[in-house]
UniProtKB/TrEMBL annotation:
This is protein acetyllysine N-acetyltransferase. InterPro entries: DHS-like_NAD/FAD-binding_dom, NAD-dep_sirtuin_deacylases, Sirtuin, Sirtuin_cat_small_dom_sf, Ssirtuin_cat_dom. Its EC number is 2.3.1.286. It comes from the Bacteria.
Length: 241
C-alpha cells in the first residue's frame, strides 16, 4: 500500500474564498501590520491588538468557506484510491475534514481556527461560541472558566508547534512513498523542511504551487497550474497507477 503524504498550504484554500498570506496578493504583503494581530507577545500584552484580532476573526471568510474541488480530490483519493493518505496542513480552516478526510488522518501543524483556548487554564470551546459573545458586545471576551485571556487555538507567531503533532508529521514524511506539497511557499519552518526530509528518505516529491519555492531543485515534478485544476488530475493519476 502506497503512503501518500500531502502537505497543504494556504493556496489550496484560496478557491474557497480564503486569501493566502505570502502570495503576490497575500495578506502579509497587503497589510504587514496584520501580523501583529497573530503574534503571541503583542496579543497577550496589548488589549487593543486583542480587540482588533477578535474583529478580524468576526469578519474572517474562514467560517463561511466551503471545501473546494482540491479539498474534495484529496478526500476522494483517501476514500477510493486503495492507498494510505495523510494530510499535513499548515492551514487552520478545517476544510480538509469538512471535505471528508477523517480527522485522524489530518495533522494540523498550526492548530485550528474553529476552537478557542484559554491562556490561563487551558479550557477549550468553539470559536462560534466566542464570536457570538463578540457579536453581543464583548470586544475581548475572557475565559468563562477562569477569566483569563482567550485566544484562537492556532499557533501564533512566537509560539512553538505542538511537538507531538510535529513528531507525527516527521514520521509520515520519512515513511511516505509520495510527498505532494500543494499551495505552500515552503518558507515557514519547520513545516517546509518536511519536503526535503521526504525526498531524502526516497519519496517522490511533487510541488504544486504558483510561485517558485526553495525546494524546487529537489522536486521530481513541479506543477505551476491552478491548484483547482491541477491537483484533481494529479491525484487521479496516482490513483490509477
Amino acid at each position: 500500500m502506497t503512503l501518500v503524504a500531502i502537505l497543504s498550504g494556504a493556496g489550496i484554500s484560496t478557491d474557497s474564498g480564503i486569501p493566502d498570506y505570502r502570495g503576490p496578493g497575500g495578506l502579509w504583503r497587503r497589510d504587514p501590520g496584520a501580523e501583529k494581530l497573530v503574534t503571541y507577545d503583542a496579543y497577550m500584552s496589548d488589549p487593543d491588538i486583542r480587540r482588533r484580532s477578535w474583529r478580524m476573526r468576526r469578519d474572517s471568510p474562514t467560517f463561511r468557506a466551503e471545501p473546494n474541488v482540491a479539498h474534495r480530490a484529496v478526500a476522494e483519493l483517501d476514500r477510493d484510491g486503495g492507498g494510505a493518505v495523510r494530510v499535513i496542513t499548515q492551514n487552520v480552516d478545517g476544510l480538509h475534514q469538512r471535505a471528508g478526510m477523517p480527522a485522524r488522518k489530518v495533522l494540523e501543524l498550526h492548530g485550528t481556527a474553529r476552537e478557542v483556548v484559554c491562556t490561563g487554564c487551558g479550557a477549550r470551546s468553539t470559536m462560534a461560541e466566542a464570536l457570538a459573545r463578540v457579536e453581543a458586545g464583548e470586544e475581548d471576551p475572557p475565559c468563562t472558566v477562569c477569566g483569563a485571556i482567550l485566544k484562537s487555538a492556532t499557533v501564533m507567531f512566537g509560539e512553538r508547534l505542538d511537538p507531538e503533532v510535529l513528531g507525527q508529521a516527521l514520521t509520515i514524511a520519512k515513511a511516505c512513498e509520495v510527498f505532494i506539497a500543494v499551495g505552500t511557499t515552503l518558507q515557514v519552518q519547520p513545516a517546509a523542511s518536511l519536503a526535503a526530509i521526504a525526498a531524502e528518505h526516497g519519496a517522490r516529491l511533487v510541488i504544486v504551487n504558483a510561485e517558485p519555492t526553495p525546494y524546487d531543485d529537489q522536486a521530481d515534478e513541479i506543477i505551476r497550474e491552478r491548484i483547482g485544476t491541477a491537483l484533481p488530475v494529479l491525484l487521479k493519476r496516482f490513483h490509477e497507477s
